[in-house]
Structure formats: C-alpha cells, structure tokens
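Notes on consecutive records. When two proteins share a document, each keeps its own sequence and its own token line. Never mix them. Below: protein one.
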Amino acid sequence: MNHSAPGNADKHGESLAARFAEAPHIAASTTDERRYENWLAELEPAHSARLEALLVHPFARNILTGIAEFSPYLFDLVRADPPRLIRLLESGPDAHLAALIDETRGAVLAAPDEAEVMRLLRRMKAEAALLIALCDIGAVWPVMRVTAALTDVAVSSVQAALQYLLRQEAARGKLLPHDPEAPEVGCGLIVLAMGKMGAGELNYSSDIDLIVFFDPDATTLAPDIEPQPFFVRVTQGMARILQQRTYDGYVFRVDLRLRPDPSSTQVAISRDAALHYYEREGRTWERAAMIKARACGGDSRAGEALLAEISPFVWRKHLDFAALADVHDMKRQMQTYRGQSEIAVEGHNVKVGRGGIREIEFFAQTQQLIAGGRHPELRVRPTLAALDVLAASNWITPAARDELTKAYEFLRRVEHRLQMIADEQTHALPDDKASVERFAWFFGYADREAFARDLLHQLEIVQGHYEKLFEGDDPTGTASLPAIDYRAGPEDPRLLQHLTTLGFKKPAAVAQTVRDWITGDYRVLRNDQTRSAFVEFVPSLIDGLAHAEEPDRAVVAFDHFLSALQRGGRLITLLGQNRDLVALVALVLGAAPRLGEMLARKPQLMDGLIDPRFFGAMPDRQELSARLAATVQDAGSYEEFLDRLRLFGQESLFLIGTRILSGTVSAQHASTAFADVAEGIVHTVHGLVADRFAAQHGRINGQETAIIAMGRLGGREMTASSDLDLILLYDFDSENPDSDGPKSLQGAHYFARFTQRLISAFTTRTNYGVLYEIDMRLRPSGRAGPVASSLTSFADYQANEAWTWEHMALTRARVVSASSEFRGRIERIIREVLTRRRDPAITANDVADMRRAIAQEKGETDYWDLKYAAGGMVDIDFIAQYLQLVHAHDKPAILDVSTVQVLENAAKLGVLPQSEVEILRAAARLYHDLTQILRLCVSDRFKPETAGVDLQRVMARAGDAPDFSSLEARVKETQGEVRRVFSALLAGK
C-alpha cells in the first residue's frame, strides 16, 4: 500500500465507489461483532439492493466494513441516513461537494430563522464529512485535496453564517448595505482565517482559527450604531451558529483566541488597534501565524487591504537578528531535551511529538520568516508550497523537499484517520499495542509492526532535517546573549546592570554566586576538563534561570545542586556537551522550584534523565512493580526499607514531573503513572507492615485487611502533590477475636493499632522525608469514626447512614491492596450501594447543595483555581458522580472510577448528550494538563502577575495555546461552558 499516493481523482465520470483504491485491513478478529452485516440486514430492500450493486467494486465492501468496525463517528453518519450514503457512493465526489456547498448557501439565504440556518449548515457538514472521509480512506483524493475540501466547507460555512446575520441586521435597520443581496460588501467587518484554514490545510476534525477585525471608518452601519458592540455581537452570533451543539451536531468549533491579547480584548478588534498592536507589541510567533492568514469572510476587499498593511510587520526588509534569536528560542522550546531513545509508537503525538507535523511546519515557516522580506517568492501559505519554493530558491535541497513532503502527507493521513474514529481533535496514537494494532488495520496495514516501521521511518526523517535547521548558526544557544565577564563578580557594575536587566532582584548575590561557580572550590569542578565544560554553558544557564518564576531562588537551588555533587564530573561534562539537557535543568530549577529543591538535595535523581529509557514509553504498572521490588529487596533494616521506599517515590515523582515540564508525556499518562507509583508503594507497605505487625502481635483467625483508594488515587488522576485518600477495611472470625502472637490484641483494637502503624510507615519523616500525606477522612463517620472499619460496619453504614456526598465519593473507590477473595466481597458491597435506585431530583438537590457549600468555603471566583472555580474540575467531577448515582440502577455500565470514562459511558448509554460530553471531556483534559504543571511549579495559589516566563510558556504549551494570554482566554471560556452544563443538569432540577 502507498500512504502518500496521489489519489484516484483523475477518473472523472466514474462513481465514487468505482474509484476506491485502498481500504482498511479486515482481520478475522475485527469482524466478530458483525456490525456492518447486521446493519445491512436491517435496510429497506430497495436501499439494500442499490447498495449491493455498488459493493461489487473493489475495496467498497471493506471500506464500509472498516468504518463499521473502527469508526463509531462515521458509522453513525452511515446509519443515520442510508440514502445519503448511497447518493455519495453513486456520485462523482468533486462535483457532488461543489453542488452541496452551493445548494446549502442558496438554502441559507432563503432560511426563515437562525434555527433553520444552523440545521442546514450541520446537514451540509455531516454529508461533507462522510464524503471526504470516504475519499480519504479509499485514496480517491490525495491528502492535500482532502484538506482543501475541508477548508472549502469551513470557508463556505463562515461566509453563509455571516451573510445571514448581516441580512438580519439590515432588516432591523442597523446596517445599510449597498447591495441587500450581498450585505458583507463594504460592511467594514474583516474575518481572517488563520493556521491550517488560512493555508487550505484543515485537518479532519479541526477547529477553525479566526481573527475578526472591523474598520470603524469604513462601514455601512446606520448613523446611530456604535461599531464595536455591533461587530462583537455579529462575531458572537457567527461563532454560535457554527459551534453550538444541537440535535444535528455542530459545524466547526471556532477559536477566536489568536487575536491580540485575547484575555483582555473583545472578540472583534478595530483595525487601528490591531495595527498599533502588531507594530508595537507583535511577537515573532504572531508574525509566523500571519504567514498563513487569509481573508475568508466579511468585506473581502477590506480584508486584503488589512493584510497588505500588516505585511511589513510579517515580512521584514532586512535580516532581523532579534527574530533570528526568537527562532532559535522557539526551536529550543520545541526541542527541550527529549532524550536520545527511540520514539515510542504507542501514545506518540504525530502533530507536536518528535518528528511530527509541527516540526515540518516550523522548518518551512521559520525560513520564510527570516528571508521572506527580501525574497517575496517565499510568501506562500501552504506548507508544501513553501517547501517547493525553498527548494527552487536553493534554501533547501530538492531531496529534503521530497522527503519532507512525503513525510508530511503520510503524517497528515495518520492524523486524519485518528480523528475519524470519534470526530475528536486528537493527534496522539493509542496508548497500548492492541489499540495501535486496530488503528493500523483501519489505516490499511496488516499489523502494528508494518505500520510502526513506516511511521518511525517518516518521523526519523523529519527529525533529521529538523535538527539540522540553522545548525551552526548558534551552537551554544547564546547568540542573543551579550559578552559579559561572569568572573568579574559583584564589583563589576556592567555585570550587575546586566543581571538587573535580566530580572534578578539581588544581582550582587547572584554575581558572587556565579563567580564562586567559576573560580571556587566546588568538589565536582576540581577537574580542569569538567570546570571548562561547566564554564561554557554558564551564560545560557543564567539566561534560562532569569526567566524563572523566582530567578534568585533558582540560582540558589542550582548552587545547592552544584555543592551537593560529589562525583558529578560525568554529569557536568554531559551538561557541557548537551545544551538541550542544560535547558531542561534550567527549566526544572527555574519553573518548578519543588523539583529544583528535590534535585539540589538529591543530585543522584539526575541519573534518571541520562537513562536512555527515560524518554521512551512510560513504564506500566508491572514494570514499576518490578523496579520497586528490586529497590527494596535487600534492605538491611526496616528503617532502610522506609528510606528506599521514599527514594523510589521521590525519583519517580522527579522523573515523571520532568517529563511533564518537557512536554514529553501527556497529563493523562502522568496521572496514571503517579497513581501506579503510589499504588505499588501502598501495596508494598501494606504487605511489609502486616508481616512486621504479625511478628509482634500474631494474626487473628480468618483475618483479612484491604486498603481502598479514594479521591485522586482511586480515580487514577493523581498529581505530584496529591495526598492519598485511603480507607482500611478488615474482617476476622468473630468467634475467635484474639491474635495468636506474643503480644496478643483483640478484634477491633488489633486493626486500629495496625492501621496506625501503617499510617506511620507513610508519614514518619526519615532522612529522605515523608512518603505521602495520608487522609482517612472519607472513612465511615469521618474523623469521628474509628481509623479502621470492619467490612460489616462499612456495609451497614453505606446502606443506612451515609450521606449523598459520601456515595459521591464512593464512585471513586478502588481496592488497591487485598486478597482477591476479600477484594471481590468489597467490590460487591460498593456496587450494591452505587446501583440502588435513587430519586433524581433529591440527588440533584443534594449535589447542588454540596457544590454551594464548597463554593462558600473555598470560593469560586478565581478562575486559576482550576479545581474550585465556577465551571472548574469540581463541577465536572460532580456531574459524573451525579450521573452514576441516578443512572447506575438501570445502566450499571455507566460506573467507572475515572471522571472522563464516566462521561464517555454516559454518552454511549444516552444519558448525557454527546455535545455536552465533548465540552466536559475537553475541559477535564485542559484542567488536568494545567493542574499537573501547577502542582509541580507552584506551592500556593497561582498568580499570573508573578508567574515567570518559563512557567507561562510551559502552561501555554500544556494548554495547546500560542501564548499565555490565549490560554487565559481559553480557561475563562471553558469554565463558562462547564458551568452552563452543570447548571442545566443540576441547578434546574
């Protein structure tokens, strides 16, 4: 098979079914459920006959079978309207898409109201989505024709929505158009398509990035109408028409956050304000974004004029050394040390991961940015067109162009196929091999290995070209740094001025510390070769620390780190030879003081960063258990055992945290990894404490103990600073309650003492600190109840005394350490409690009351308090818990300890609309991504005004935003959407 094939689009006149050239691989194991055959059997005879006639064509049957087996989203489109599918298979795709767009535009013009406009556009999108998917899966169209088709649908949708809204405003007398049939002409509204939409490269489930401007001096507004409120309202109306979820779905998700300073500006900005911003404050990434900008809606002539006015900002006439430094900085941010190990296929992000789509785009755009001012031929929007021009102009070799073009086309098809599964804007491959195998089949490969070979080959090609980009221009990463004598110390006013300019509050102390590094008697620097390697990267290290949240504190942390190194010559040499690792160390010490202090206390933690396995696939629970067992197996004493456990926990926290900071692991992966580490430690401590306790006090006949994880550990959603919410349950032979040891204890007293010993193992401070803080307040009766509960009393309490909020907490209960028989008994009790019938109105009222009580205690107005803010994570957790409590009796399949999985289950079971599930799921992922960063980097409440540049960059990257202002706007919008869903579901009951 050829996944960069030019497509089969030249057979004009033939039906789509006749032009299929590829299909998913249908393995025997994929057809067990026979979804496709079952659906076919349910069709009306006439439809079935027409469809069977089309399925005689090669690949056609396997394409539909593959859709049924691998893509719930596409199969829903197939089942929703069989005549539509037949119509598409019988059509010529190019002509059909053009006719569909034209007919919808005409129908929108005649629509009586907004609801009908929304219905028409959603019907068009659904039909176009199915048609384009069939052309992509069947290799009828090459991938760039697919992206162009998606862009055509998006542009038409934006134009139709705007035209409808402007005609409505004209009917109200607020707009006086020159031509009532074309109210957009001369209206002063300008809509720019950005990113992939601007370049005609939309991906299958893409958002559309728009910036909306208006020219208040050149409008057709009625004399008494203020321009800004008018155009803001129209922009909001356009976004609502396109992205509001209805019974028919949505058209496109609209992202308006690429505008200047989106956290503090309206969604439509005046032309003069925009030009002033770009001239005075515009940043290099905004210049890069404007390369692809295209007028796509509103007043097209005004749009082209605005782009011409912005052009000098984008295309500088002279080589811009500040921009060159920015480009190097951007490359370093993308390339922050990510290890030398092989790329892991499972979980790899084909957009922003190593060797991914973003690296190809960066490769082209940065060269355009630097040279496009003097070479107008480089000013093209599409990525592949840019590669062509770069090769024709001898900026890159023809071989580089050809290799990158092939890789780009391959990776874009992978991206599309991932998104076709569930209409999600995802770019990451599944996390496990079995799921990747299924994806490979959907992509047409016979097995995972064949797909992995091709994928890795393309990723490695891209990475090779990307790493050579600007190679030699700035080998140390210090091109923008002035020549400063760091040996001069606090007596040198020039050095002090430089450090003050960088942002250090105590420049004299920093200058003295740096001089001590270079000239002092640090044990690790006594070797001349090591000292020489260290001195080379001092300028870039200081520059990195200067952008930290607390620069002076980061320097002190690095000084502690350097002082603590005993035999770190190998490590210092490695730092001197690898600026990416330097960048990572500076990032850790600068952005995450908690990790920096941990590294300063225990420099040996750095060893994990040098391990080639570090940046490969995350270790699973089995591998972590094996590492933990190896760590503690030869401990000579109980105290040494506790120390080794703590060191293992801290090493794991440090390594996972560093991966979060460097962007090489997703928040979900990190949450699971933190939980796996904690679970392994809990199980190990439980076993050891039980054995030691029994040696002293013996055992009781028939005794069983179990540890139940609640909260974040129960839901496998832990962060670096999570406590462990635990409940200990026990059982024993009540006829023989005495233990058989030398210091016999009886019944409940035995297990209370055991639990206290267990808590002590976690919380006792040793040379290596505390293992975890333990919270047992979720046990029956909370603080007023005994620290350990018998299984009988636990079951009775949950059945007869527990409040609704306690059953909400129980939805996350997970047995993490127990015998299999005792585990089963506990799980049955929990399931019986959660699946009992409940009154939805009473439950909703209880949940809403609980949310109000939390808001009163914790506050909900700080939108950076991602947990407690109105529309924050607590709202989402409570929605998931409410849905389980009211629906588990009739639909027990809704139950799960993971909030996101509960939402997925709710959608499948039809108890929550898919549109609301998508809002909540996207919000939960955003909150998890940001929370992981904040728990690593901030001890108290996060305050944007004091956050350092490093931390803001890391957060923006985690939130997939171009800058911090855009992230701030996204957080606010997301919280508004979540609170709307919460209020509709619970407050209105």
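Protein two starts on the next line and is unrelated to protein one.
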Amino acid sequence: MSVNRVTTRTVPEEPEGVRTRLRGRDAELASIEARLDALDRGEGGIIRVEGPVGIGRSRVLAEAAAAARRRGTRVFEGAADPDEQCVPLGPLLDGLLSGEEPLSGAVRLRDLATTPGQRFWLLQELGDRLRETARNGPLLVVLDDLQWCDDLTLLTFNTLAAGLSSHAILWLVAVRGGSVPSGVRTTLDRIRQAGAQELALGALDDQATTRITEDVLGAAPDADVLRVVRRAEGVPRLLVELLGSLREAVTTEDGTARLSAGPPAPQELPSVVRRLDQLSDEARALVRTAAAAGGPVTVARLAELLGRSSAALITAVRESLDADLLIESGDHLAFRHDLIREAVDAGLPLPLRQALRGQAGGLSPGSAASPVDRLQPSAGRAPADAAEADLLRTAAAELAATAPGPAAERSLKALELTSADAPERPRVIAETIPLLWQTGRAAQARELGASVLATGALGPEDEARIRLALARLAVPFDFTEAVRQARAGSALHGTPVDLRGRLLAMLAVGLSMSGEHSAAERVAAEAWETAAAAGDRSAEATLTTVRSAASFHRMDLTEAFRQAERSVALADALGVSTSLWVPEALWHALLSNTTGRSAEALAAAEEGIRITREQGRTAATAMWLMTRSRILLEAGRLTDARADAEAASATTDDLGPGNLADVTLRYVMMRVALHTNDQQTGRAYAAEARRMRSDGAPVVRHFGSWMLALMADFEGRPDRAMAELDEVMTSPVADRPAYAGLVDPADAPVLVRLALRAGAHERAAQAVALAERLAVLNPDLTFLAATAAHARGLLDNDLAPLVRAVRLYEDCPRPLARASALEDAGRKLAATRKSEAVPYFDTALTLYARAGAERDVARVRRRLRAAGVRRRPSTAGLSRAWPELTAAEMRVVRLVAQGLTNQQVAEHLSLSSHTVSSHLRRSFTKLDVTSRGELTRLTKDRDSGE
C-alpha cells in the first residue's frame, strides 16, 4: 500500500474525468474544522466517521486532510484493505512512513513490525516518534476502512491514541457501518469510552442530490431527470455512477438537462462490478440469482434455484451480507439498493437472465415452506407479538442444528417481541444465549444472561435455565466460571428433574476440564441417576465423555476410547444443537492424538472444521482449530501448527481465547517457539504461562507450570525448571496429572531428561514409573511402549531400551518423539562407538529438518561434528527456488501471485482465511516484501530464473 494509492481510494464517487464538489456534508465538515481549530490550540482527540458502503466516508476524510494541510498541519494517511491484512500494522505504518514527509526512523519501525516478539518495542518507538513529531506542530493521522484492519493495527491504534491523548494529535478514522469483526467492535467501544466524536454519515438530502446532478451534467435537471437520480436514495457513489450512465441519455436545452428518450435501461455500475469480483464463485452465483429473482427472496427459494440445500448456502449468504450487497429484510434477503440489484442483473447474459427469471417464476407455490417462509408477515401488517414470537422460537429451534446464525437472529427477534414482564421471557433468553455463543457473540450472550440474573426476580426453574446456558457458554473461556454457574443452578430447589440432570452433567464437565477429576467422578455418578430418571439422552452423551476422561485419568485407555466413541455416537444421533458440550467429538480427537493415532485425530479435526465452518458455528470452529494445532504440533508439522494456532487466536470470540486456548494454542505456540529457537516468542508465552499459574482451574495451572519449566530448561536453568513443577508434583494424588499437567505421554522422556539435568533422580524415576504403568495397562498401544522404553533408557543411561524405543517409534506417527529417541540413542553410542552413532544422528537430523525444528537441527549438527561428520544444511520440504518458505507457505504464495484473494486461496486449499493470512504474513516477512504486487513480481522473477 502507498499514500498515492490511498489518495485514489478517497474519491471513489467521481466518474471518469469529472471532479465533483463535496455536497451535503456541510455540518460534518464544520465539525471537523472545529476540531482542527482545537488541534491548532494543542488539543488532540479522535473523530470516528461511520456509514455504509458508498456513503462517502473516504471523501470526507480526503476533504479533512486537505483542510488540515491548508492550515500547515502535518498529515499522515493510511487505509486498510481486505486482501492485505497479512502485513502486520500495514495500514498504519504505510500512513506514517510513506509520502512526502514520513515519520522519522521508517526503516527501523518496519523492521520491528515484521520481527516476531517486538510488539512492545514497536509500540514504544512509534509512540516516541509521534510524541517527538507533535512537539514541532499538530498532527492529523487519518486511518480509513477500520473494519479491514489487522489485529496489530487495532491494538496499536488503541494504545497510541490513549497514550498520546495529551498531545496535539488528532486521529480521524472511518469505519463501515453495520456488522464488523469483534476486534473492530471492541476498538470502537474503547474509543467511544475515551470520548471520541462520532460523525454518522446518512443519505444526502434532495437539495444535495440536485446540486450534484447539476455538477455532473452541467445543467439544472428537470423533473424527469430528478426522478431517475432519486433512485440512488442519496448514496453518493451510486448517485454519481448513475449520473455517469445518464450523461449520454441527457440533452441540455436552455440551461436545463432533460432525458432525450425516456429513462435509460439499467446498466452495470463500476462499484458493484468491483464488489462482485471480490466474492467467491458461490457467493457471486447467489447474488446474481437473487438479482434475477426480482424482489426480496428467501434462502429456501435461492437454494431451490441453485439446486442446493439451504444449509449449503450459509457461507455464501454471509459473504454477500458482509459485502453489503444484500441485507436481511425480515426473513428474506433483499438488495441494499434496487440500483445494485439492477446493476447485477444487467451484467447477466440475456439468455441466462431470462432462464433464471422463468425458473424463479415457475417454482410451485405449493412447495414445502421452510420456517423462514412460514414466518414472513403480510405486507404492511405489524406481527402479532406473542404469536409471532412463538413462531420465531419454533423456527430458531428448527434451524439451530444446521444454521445457528439465522437461528440466533430469529431468537433475538423473538426476544424483542417478548415483553419484559412476560413469564416466558427468561426461557427465551436461555434459548438465545447458546445460539449467540455458537455464532461468535459470547460477550453479548453473557451480558444478556448476567442482566436477567441481576434482576433477582427469577423463579428457580428460570434461574436454573439461565445458569445452564451460561455454564455452556463459559466452558471454552473459563473452566472455573462454568463450574460456578452449573453448581449454583444445580443447587436450586424446585427445578424439574431433567433440568437438574443437565446442570449436574455440565458441572461434571466443568470439573473434568478444570482438572478436578475426583470431584468430577462424584458429581457424574449423581448426574447419571438423575439423567436416567429423566430419560435424558443429551445429558447421557455429555456424561459419557466425562466417564471417558475419568478412564483416561486412571490410565485405562481402552475403556476411555470405548466411552469416547459411544459419546460421539450419542451426540451424532441427537444432533449437535442438543449437545451440552459442543462437540463431544473434540475429546475423541484429542484422545486419539494423545495415544499416537495422529492420522485419525487429524481427519476428525479437519472434518470438524469443515462442518462447523459450513454451518456457521464460529465457536466450535475455533475450538476445532485449537485442537488441530495441538495435533499438528505432535505430528511434527510445526509451521502448520503455528498457523492454526494463530488462526484460532484470530477467530476467538469477543470474550478472548480463554482457558481452552491456554491448554492448546498458547501451549502450541510455546513449543513451536522452543523447537525453532525463537527466544522472543518463547518469552512472550512464558509471560502468559505465569498468568496461567494463578488460574482457578488446576489443569490451567499445571499447563502454566509445564510451560515455565520448558522455558527455564531452554534457558539452561534446570534447577529452576524443577522448581516450577513443585506444585504439580506435590498436588493431591487423586487429581495429579501424569507428566506434569499434560495429556501427552511423549513428554515423559522430556521430563526425565529435565529432572536428571537438575539432579532430581526421584522425580525422574516417578515419571518413568508412570510411563511404564501406562504402557502395561494398554499393551495394544505401541506408542506408549515406545515412550516408556525411551524414558527408561534415559533414567538408566542404558542403550538397549533406547534402541528398543527407536524401533517401536518406527510404527508411530510422532516424528519429533522418534527423532528425540534416535538422538538419545546416538548420544549414548557416541561415547564409545562414534561411527555407529552417525546413522542415528543422521535420521534424527532428517526428521527434525522436515519438521522445521531449527534448534533441534542445530543441536544434532553439533553432535555430528563431535563425531567427526559434517552435513550440508538440509532443504527437506523446501523448494530450491524458494528456500525461505515451507511447502504450505509456498502453496499460498503461488496462488496469491496468480491474483487470488485470501478467501479464494482458502477455498482452493480447504483452509480458513485466517490460516491463509498467517502463512502469507510469515511469507512476506521471510521474503522481505510488503505488498501483493511485490510478491507477484518476485514470483515472476524467480520462476524465470532471474
């Protein structure tokens, strides 16, 4: 991005060759001028300009920047782009560091922005540079299209605006109205709390429309021309583009513009064509079909026209709504403006347009109506509130299993139609909370539940339902809060037996996930009796998962698998919407991975991501991404594991990642950093681990302890590492986790090695005893036997069990664990038989190199050199033309260089757009490029051999 390109984007409303004056924004410009007057007096602040697509936000920003320059104010302009979110801090840095007078120290600031772990120093230095510049005169910082900004830009803007509020710096930001990502919504809430002035741009009035028409046509419009241009409904971009198409149809007589031959036929509009081109093929087909259908259309009708199921259109519908081409109109989809529909329709070939219209008109009026169709009120009639609310709740229940997004909207609408004193209102709230959580609106869901609990006016049954919903919501975020809500609900007297059974089941889940295993088993026993009495199969599915976790804790993995499979079968039979813990299959995947069945676990995770993404289950998708990041780590795919962890972090809800992220993605990022010798990132996650040590959930504290122990060992402080594990190793036996808080047996040799370095022989022996007991109890799992042999070989410093571990690991999909055993066997051999050690080191080196474990590669190279052997650097998994990139990164780069958007790349590779952004961001850093254009040129150069 560059300032020149940004300037071009600020005047999108102008037709070719015409520069129109800004009309109808006198009040907004006067407000900005007043703030510029205050800026001249040394008073900074924030102005937020908001409005829908095409309303003129960028034009207002351009006029404000020009006004500031006329005063002698220094201006920095930046803008975000939906396809360039992979460049960390790109919009803000390009605004500050490009142009005629960039901020001083541009090179160093860019280096800090693209270097992992330098966020703190980047913020410090940016703040210092802006502060220094503001001392020499007032500054205006313009940031357009805030809705497309990456997370680092949002964080930096928040931090700088707050930290520099006493300086003469005015921040002028623009954001599209309507739905925006949760991170952007948080930013908007924060700047509102900080006193930001808000300018909401609405439609132009009739006087402004007339003046713009006169500007473009060069003459005053007559009544017929005005009737045509009023169809733009005061949207500047549509108005000017419509006028551009009118110029050839208008004649001027006696200073008046008249239509020469009646209203012109609808034509394609440039802005609509651009927005269509940015859509996926599926969404583009949906929008074009909706245009051909004429007026507002239901999703069911579109599905029938496209030959698809309604559920299969979820992603395309959401994409079309996000592009602001379509809007929700009751239970129908409609175009934002009829001009947009006509422009889309005009772009269709005539035979296709006629065929679609014939098909749309020929659908049988007796076709089975979806819940959406049944709810559509008659034109001009206000719904009868109580009856309409009942219908909406029924529709929400029917849609919940396959389309939670539309279900949530219907449930919210039902809540709006339910009066505050209606006896059924608490139940409607309890139905709405899980739907909001599933679709990524957990903060709204929690606030809804907390507000009704705060009234203190609920009966026992209503309160129990609300607490059950809040407990389900809390599971991914706060294990302790999930326990608190479920315990409070189950303690209420006078609740139905089925509801109490579900609360007890949820309490057992919370305790199990929290790491309080003995308490979880006690509660589960009571819950089984209650659920059986109520005949509640949903609670049974949840409790079967708890039984599986208990069997795992007792090291009976055969029984754990049996119960996990039964739990998944029950949940599948019932439908995911009825599950108390969505989805039970997560546990089965984690269990498979823990015991060396990585391929099975990975297949389950990928299927889970695919299904939940298709259904729009944002919360479940994030949970599956976190799970897959852990699986990829232990499968030795470090780059992919890091990408998934970053993607999951980017998609986490507005409540933040929470406890589940603590024990998945934060743990993954720490382990990847240590394997790749990324000390800065390792230390950053060590800081997270210190926070985890004070969490209310034992399992989170245990993970934090293990992460801190690994970091201390990385830094060469084995005594400190063992001290970090004191709480875990001395916790009550009933709840003490094997291997210092982890569920991965492969860490037994790591713990043994760590304890031996610290001289803690008893702790090393304890870890070996646990590993051997686990292997004996589960003789069919070769991976466990390999782990036990590896740990025993380290403890006894005995070559035989190490060689046995190497042989057993050959049949296990754990390359890093196998490489570690090979390295340890080679190290033992090297003491007396160096030549025999070399093949072990060579194989370990190859496995580490394929995984991208740079620190481990360097260590094995040192061992080989000590044995008198030098190996050339390996390029396993890398292309000769692209030695900097992994195979996954190279696949993304190739497609981006062909002109595909991030969304199109994601669809092509079956990845999430966040994962694509993660790969692309790292590729930009490795290749030292800052734009897609640079990347495309570099690709052409390398492919041509230059």
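For the record: The two ends are 25 Å apart (CA to CA).
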